[in-house]
Amino acid sequence: MSPCPSGNRKVAVVGVALSDCGRVDDTTPYALHAQAARRALADSGLDRSVIDGFASAGLGTLAPVEVAEYLGLRPTWVDSTSVGGSTWEVMAAHAADAIAAGRANAVLLAYGSTARADIRAGRRTGDLSFGARGPLQFEVPYGHTLIAKYAMAARRHMHEYGTTLEQLASVAVQARQNAALNPDAMFRDPITVDDVLSGPMIADPFTKLHCCPRSDGGAAVLLVAEEYVRDCRTAPVWVLGTGEHVSHTTMSEWPDFTVSPAAVSGRIAFGRAGVRPAEIDVAQIYDAFTYMTLVTLEDLGFCAKGEGGAFVEKGRLRVTGGELPVNTDGGGLSAQHPGMRGLFLLVEAVRQLRGEAGARQVRRTSGELPALAVASGTGGWFCSAGTVVLGR
């Protein structure tokens, strides 16, 4: 392949890593950033002196300045774009464009969060408010939470297309089946559709197992220009195409609850990569709730609008025997979800393409490793989306 995001230089992902994840009570989010960053750099085999770009969001008053200082970096290219869970796919797009254009050579993306530990220690509450200023002032008085907004969208899809609770539940079941193959996943015990349906109600129609757990953890990804690849320890994974899109912040401005912004970001990313959804071997999709997986699969073009329910209920998302393995590490529903999880999608996509996923490794019917992967992040309550197509 001859990947080139937008400029003249090809861009590759050469280092990926996670920090300790799941239940991490005795550390700080800064330390998780550092742990993931050190591991990603070691994974690449490059020296930290090559890093001239840094991107981070979600921590400190002046992110990424504070985190860069903590890591001992003095970057000449920075990005602090913050659009929720899709932040990292959007940042990867910005970094790839900067590298391709010669404005940076090696960009490190890093994230860390102690969301779970903070609640246990009483440092914050379970419901983190997005505030009541600006456009949100017109919704906050009515009291619906972030989870309720996703639930409203799911109910609309059920109304429009006949999507069933059982079909949504099957997303959680398959995520857990994939997590069972991941020794680092928080939750690995098998669950059934009945287990999902009979759980405590969180926001109709979502019961507890329709929703992601709250965890601690961090991740890091290193992108470099093509001339650095020869010095790397690992085989490159090329950035083939990216897309980003923002949709709305107030629910009244969302034209259609059954269409996510991935419908736009995906079309752009696939078009720039020059590949079709049917050619993708493995997909990593943001899944704070089961409906997110279903509607994003539709909007990325893996099935027609309204057919997501029928698509997911056939076991297609499983690592073992699935036609399109999705969230192969167990996803946010079972592996871990420390907040803005989009960077974890990129880490898992790269590991799959490099053949480093262990028992959960996806292979083509020919036995070969996957050649193409897509990572698609979602932010807010379907407010934003970022999609990245990667290839060997």
Automatic annotation (TrEMBL):
CDD domains named in the record: SCP-x_thiolase
Gene3D superfamilies: 3.40.47.10
SUPFAM superfamilies the record matches: Thiolase-like
Record domain Thiolase C-terminal: where: 243-392
A matching Pfam family: Thiolase_C_1
Signal peptide extent: none
Protein origin, superkingdom: Bacteria
Record PANTHER family: ACETYL-COA C-ACETYLTRANSFERASE, NON-SPECIFIC LIPID-TRANSFER PROTEIN-LIKE 2
Name of the molecule in the record: Acetyl-CoA acetyltransferase
Organism name: Streptomyces tauricus
Organismal lineage: Bacteria, Bacillati, Actinomycetota, Actinomycetes, Kitasatosporales
